[in-house]
Design goal:
The structure holds two protein chains of two kinds. Chain A is an alpha/beta fold. Chain A is built from seven helices and twelve strands. Chain B is 20% helix and 41% strand. In chain B, helix 6 crosses helix 7. Classes of the chains: A alpha/beta, B alpha/beta. At the A-B interface, helix 2, strand 7, helix 3 and strand 8 of A face helix 6 and helix 7 of B.
């Protein structure tokens, strides 16, 4: 699925990622944990192609296709989906219009016919119901006036509508109450299957109580320093990260 | 009587000359090009082909066309008289600021055959009336001055959409309007201007609101080479509400200037100004908005907002929102923002597979549509949205 090879990236000439190697095969859920400032969100943004960051060396490939130089939108169309840590509010752009535009951009890229408004609405309403959201959600502007929980649910709604190959969840669990956390987890579990992959970036174990990862990576100062199973999460919860520096 | 007024106005104009940039209201708008329109409209009437229907009032060079009046479905609810027969005190009872404007005086000195159009008491018209302005090509590069007064009778409900119809030739369209809204009237006045010529539009619109009036002024100006509009609203009696929503779309060297003054002269009145400009290329927008809350105008609720979206490094917006408050129990707010499209929003849309150009168009439309959505007339919303889409795609 995705393969990151010796990736180095910087912002404003400050080195953040200092040689990331990561491979997530289809059907797997991987987790990256690390301290604040360790480069987790930078990695998520670089995977998504955020132009604020400079890739200094290394490569990112999706299904053996090098996407390192690919535009943001083409990466999205290739199947990369970033669940934003801080989703932006865009007043005046309705959720329904936005979702349908995004979905149809993907369908066009895949050589499929655009989805008509009625079919789109029926699908969207089904997902909304599963997420415990009211249909009126579609009439609101993108994330405008949304609570923290609603913003994250909006991200999951987009994830399930677009149905990408790789979902990168950048601290999607932060700021959520237990109910919202369960809704988000339910959405991610509904999304994942043997043909797609999930990369979860988090500080806490609590989301992982609902989404079981296959591999856990620990990141320190722009590098993945250890990979393993869920026991690593438990150790970090108990001992923090300082033991990795020894 | 009218001759004396015109003579005095011309003397005023001659003594002051064209407005200079030293004047606060003209600081960012040059009147230099007015010199290109050195002659007033010739007084010869020519025929013109126009579409008149039963819901339209047609003005040719700013003069009400009598044939369209005859066809007008609601003519029985109107009383129309010539401004030549209106007593001078009533004629010029309007903004002191306008009376001190040299161009307003020039307009007064030159207008011909203005009309006093009065909607009778309790005229409730559910359909939208169209005002269609036609201009004769014979007057290319001339000044076309007009003055008309609209009187909305007590308890009346009137909705108007005004549009200009003109081929690609240039005039100085100097338009003076006065609107008197009697007690408990509702007046919705929408404008949609789309002009690709080098026409200079300069308008002075004065609104006098009595008790419990509901006024909406909605306007969209697209591709105007020069459009400067003075709007002054007097909230003279209690319980009235004035809402102004304006959207201007500028490209190339277009210049738009909204000069708005709202005078809260009575208690329990509300006012709302919302002006947005989308500016591309070398276009310029000016917003001079002022709210004056007089002593004793308690329980005033007023809000003023100007937002400018700059799509190029060479576009410019000058924003000057002002409040003058002389009462102590009021709620007044104002704000102004100017900036480019938000890169975080563009990134967000692109991260969902929408390309940069499409993302920019979505964001421009969203910015502009927030004003259009607030227009009080759904038909104006429709016209404006179509015009907006073609502007964005153009």
């Amino acid at each position: 699925m995705i393969k990151i090879d010796r990736l180095k990236a910087s912002i404003d000439e400050k080195d953040i990622l200092k040689g990331i190697d990561l491979e997530i095969p289809a059907g797997e859920v991987h987790v990256i944990m690390g301290r604040n400032g360790s480069g987790k969100s930078t990695l998520a943004n670089v995977i998504a192609g955020n132009e604020a960051y400079e890739v200094d060396s290394g490569s990112i490939s999706m299904n053996n296709n090098d996407i390192t130089e690919m535009s943001i939108e083409n990466r999205a169309l290739e199947g990369i989906f970033l669940c934003f840590q801080y989703p932006v509010a865009i007043p005046g752009v309705g959720m329904a219009y936005f979702l349908r535009s995004a979905l149809n951009a993907h369908r066009k890229y895949q050589g499929k016919e655009e989805m008509d408004a009625l079919e789109f609405l029926n699908n969207a309403k089904k997902i909304l119901s599963e997420l415990g959201l009211d249909d009126s959600f579609l009439k609101r502007s993108i994330n405008d006036g949304f609570s923290g929980g609603e913003k994250k649910k909006s991200e999951i709604l987009q994830l399930l509508t677009i149905n990408p190959k790789l979902a990168v969840l950048d601290e999607t669990d932060s700021g959520l109450d237990v109910d919202a956390l369960r809704t988000v987890a339910k959405g991610v579990n509904k999304f994942k299957n043997k043909n797609n992959s999930v990369l979860i970036i988090t500080h806490y174990q609590r989301l992982l109580d609902y989404i079981k990862p296959d591999v856990v990576h620990l990141m320190i100062e722009g590098k993945i320093v250890k990979s393993g199973d869920m026991s690593l999460v438990e150790k970090v919860e108990k001992d923090g990260y300082s033991w990795l520096e020894n | 009587m009218i001759d004396t007024i015109k003579k005095n106005s011309l003397e005023f104009f001659n003594s002051k000359g064209l407005p200079s940039k030293k004047l606060e209201n003209w600081k960012f708008t040059s009147s230099r090009n007015f010199k290109n329109f050195s002659e007033p409209l010739s007084n010869i009437q020519h025929s013109i082909d126009f579409e008149a229907d039963e819901l339209s009032l047609v003005f040719i060079n700013g003069i009400l066309d009598q044939d369209s009046l005859k066809k007008f479905k609601f003519a029985h609810l109107l009383e129309v008289q010539s401004l030549n027969t209106v007593e001078s005190r009533k004629l010029l009872q309007c903004s002191e600021n306008f009376l001190n404007e040299s161009m307003f005086n020039l307009g007064i000195s030159e207008f011909e055959n203005g009309s006093y159009i009065s909607f009778k008491k309790n005229s409730v018209i559910e359909e939208v009336i169209n005002i269609k302005n036609y201009f004769l090509k014979d007057n290319e590069n001339k000044r076309v001055s007009s003055f008309n007064i609209f009187h909305i009778g007590q308890g009346s409900e009137v909705s108007i959409i005004e549009q200009d119809f003109k081929e690609d030739y240039s005039i100085l369209n100097l338009k003076l309007n006065k609107f008197i809204c009697e007690d408990s009237s509702t007046f919705k006045y929408g404008k949609s201007f789309n002009d690709n010529s080098k026409t200079h539009s300069l308008s002075y619109s004065y609104y006098q609101l009595k008790k419990d009036v509901c006024l909406n002024i909605d306007s969209m100006v697209k591709c105007s080479f020069f459009n400067k509009e003075f709007i002054e609203v007097d909230l003279n009696e209690t319980g009235s509400d004035a809402k102004i929503n304006i959207l201007n779309l500028g490209k190339e060297n277009h210049h738009v200037d909204n000069n708005i003054l709202i005078n809260h002269n009575a208690e329990h009145c509300t006012s709302f100004q919302h002006v947005r400009n989308v500016l591309d290329n070398k276009s310029t927008a000016v917003f001079n908005g002022k709210v004056i809350v007089s002593e004793g105008a308690q329980q005033t609720d007023s809000n003023q907002s100007n937002k400018n979206l700059l799509l190029s490094l060479e576009s410019n917006a000058f924003s000057n929102p002002q409040l003058e408050i002389y009462a102590d129990d009021v709620s007044c707010g104002h704000g102004s923002t100017t900036g480019a499209l938000d890169e975080n929003s563009i990134f967000y849309l692109r991260a969902r597979g929408i390309d940069r150009a499409a993302a920019q168009k979505i964001l421009i439309k969203a910015f502009a549509k927030e004003v259009i959505d607030d227009f009080s007339l759904s038909s104006l919303q429709d016209i404006s949205e179509i015009a907006l889409d073609s502007w964005i795609d153009g």
